[in-house]
Amino acid sequence: METPKITQAMINAYDEYTHLTLDRRRFMEKLTLLAGSGAAAAAIAPMLAASGAKAAMVEEMDARLTAEDITYPGAGGEMKGYLAVPKDASGKLPGVIVIHENRGLNPHIRDVARRMALEGFVALASDFLSPQGGTPENEDKAREMFSTLDMGATVANGEATRAFLAAHDKVNGKVGAIGFCWGGGMVNRMAVASPELGAGVAYYGAQPPAEDVQKIRAPLMLHYAGLDERINAGIGAYMAALEKNGKTFEIFVYDGVNHAFNNDTSAARYDKAAAELAWSRTVAFLKKNLA
Question: What is the mean pLDDT of residues 129-150?
Answer without folding.
Answer: 93
